[in-house]
């Protein structure tokens, strides 16, 4: 092994052809560790190793595959604190978020798919009359979920535990083998996950991890002829390029892309609940999450009070070192991303929005911090209302009545998760069904982890989470016989 982190290919820890690059703590700007830079050849070798391992793994009894996932869950839980410390250092997440929402959720996802669900179900018999195909007969049928094959998992930088686990665990449960390409900003946690899976007894080649800053690594694991499916979480722009490559070979895709979540707040809403929910854009991963309610549509009767309360909420949040227990808002992932977020705040000013909270860089000597920022008096045609900023920035737009609110919410390229706050439950559900989004939260930003997750429009293709992930990582085969 070299001084830095090695790659994981075919059950072996391999020195990277491209050497190592530093992983930076976004809160301190110090080096957390050294990540491996794979070559395209090594990326393709990982895909070949996954292909070689697929036959035996796909024929392994589901109960045995589940046992491996269960052991991995226990190993991750046992090592939660050191794993979370690394995740916090790589991502800038607060300690609570790193433990509960990153490593904790990853362990829960491995545990979830350690339970075996039926992979086949009967189809109602059909009576076929005599004809060119033969004599009259009653035909039976069985639908069987089969593994897709080799799955490339390209993961996001905002959660290097929960996001990869949400791909790897159901893919392995269905009998697929995987090649994981983690985001270049925080790949070290994913290699810890690979070590946990290795310790849990995953056979060589079933899980492979290759990383790198060069786009050629990602291109290689997507384009490889050994790959049958690509599961991607990230920007719509990158997702579009991946989809083009997959389309050439008819590879299966699961795409969880960008979001610009609309939060409709009606006059009769519980404002405290709405403010706390919308405020997670400021605090949860510092707004670096696709499900954030970043575009607030406030009915006129509550608009001024909502803006005032959101501004006060944002101003009270402590921005600082994520290791300190009272820190609520940590840094964004990099200096480059901070500059991007700040440029959007300035663009909002130029477009005519009013900065009522934040808008200035916090007075810290080191780290990539952005103050929670609230833009009021927005309009839906502003770029800050239409484009994903991926930071602690919320834009508030007024509306008059239900029809206008729904029209504004749906006037977006995205459709991942929207939100409705209203004291009228019947209206809330009526509005939810009119929204063109893959998910709708009613008076909550919480998630049901068995509910299907995915987006309409440019927010993605397909659904995962719970049993829906088992469908996503499988093909359905029909077996028919004469009764």
From TrEMBL:
Provide a Gene Ontology MF annotation, just one.
geranial dehydrogenase activity
One family name in Pfam for this protein: Aldedh
Broad class of enzyme this protein falls into? oxidoreductase
Q: Which UniProt keywords apply?
A: Oxidoreductase
Q: Please report the stretch or stretches of sequence annotated as the Aldehyde dehydrogenase domain.
A: 13-479
Q: Highest taxon of the source?
A: Bacteria
This chain belongs to the protein called: Geranial dehydrogenase
Per the UniProt record, the source organism is: Streptomyces cyanogenus
């Amino acid at each position: 092994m070299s001084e830095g982190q090695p790659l994981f290919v075919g059950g072996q820890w391999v020195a990277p052809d491209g050497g190592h690059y530093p992983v930076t703590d976004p809160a301190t700007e110090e080096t957390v560790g050294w990540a491996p830079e794979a070559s395209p050849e090594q990326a393709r070798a990982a895909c070949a190793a996954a292909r070689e391992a697929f036959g035996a793994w796909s024929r392994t009894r589901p109960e045995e595959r589940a046992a491996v996932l269960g052991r991995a869950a226990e190993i991750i839980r046992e090592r939660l604190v050191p794993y979370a410390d690394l995740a916090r250092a790589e991502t800038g997440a607060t300690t609570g978020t790193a433990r509960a929402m990153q490593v904790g959720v990853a362990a829960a996802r491995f545990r979830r798919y350690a339970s075996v669900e039926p992979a086949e179900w009967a189809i109602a018999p059909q009576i076929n009359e005599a004809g060119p195909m033969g004599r009259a007969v009653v035909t039976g049928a069985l639908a069987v979920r089969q593994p897709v094959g080799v799955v490339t998992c390209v993961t996001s930088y905002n959660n290097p535990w929960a996001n990869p686990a949400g791909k790897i665990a159901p893919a392995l449960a269905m009998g697929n083998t995987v090649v994981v390409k983690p985001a270049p900003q925080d790949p070290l946690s994913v290699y810890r996950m690979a070590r946990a899976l290795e310790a849990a007894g995953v056979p060589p080649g079933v899980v492979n991890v290759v990383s790198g800053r060069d786009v050629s690594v990602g291109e290689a694991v997507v384009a490889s002829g050994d790959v049958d499916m690509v599961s991607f979480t990230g920007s719509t722009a990158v997702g579009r390029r991946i989809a083009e490559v997959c389309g050439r070979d008819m590879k299966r895709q699961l795409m969880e892309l960008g979001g610009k979540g609309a939060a409709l707040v009606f006059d009769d809403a519980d404002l405290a609940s709405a403010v706390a929910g919308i405020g997670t854009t400021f605090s949860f991963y510092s707004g670096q999450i696709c499900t954030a309610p970043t575009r607030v549509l406030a009915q006129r009767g509550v608009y001024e009070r909502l803006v005032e309360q959101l501004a006060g909420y944002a101003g009270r949040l402590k921005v600082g070192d994520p290791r300190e227990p009272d820190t609520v808002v940590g840094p964004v992932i990099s200096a480059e991303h901070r500059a991007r977020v700040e440029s959007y705040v300035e663009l909002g000013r130029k477009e005519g929005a009013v900065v009522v909270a934040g808008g200035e860089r916090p007075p810290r000597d080191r780290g990539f911090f952005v103050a929670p920022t609230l833009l009021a008096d927005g309009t839906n045609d502003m770029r800050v209302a239409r484009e994903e900023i991926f930071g602690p920035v919320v834009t508030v737009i007024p509306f008059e009545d239900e029809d206008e609110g729904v029209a504004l919410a749906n006037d977006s390229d995205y459709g991942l998760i929207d939100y409705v706050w209203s004291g009228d439950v019947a209206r809330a559900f009526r509005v939810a069904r009119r929204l063109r989004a893959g998910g709708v939260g009613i008076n909550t930003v919480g998630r049901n982890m068995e509910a299907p997750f995915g987006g309409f429009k440019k927010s993605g293709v397909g659904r995962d989470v719970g049993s829906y992930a088992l469908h996503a990582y499988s093909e359905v085969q029909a077996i028919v016989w004469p009764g």
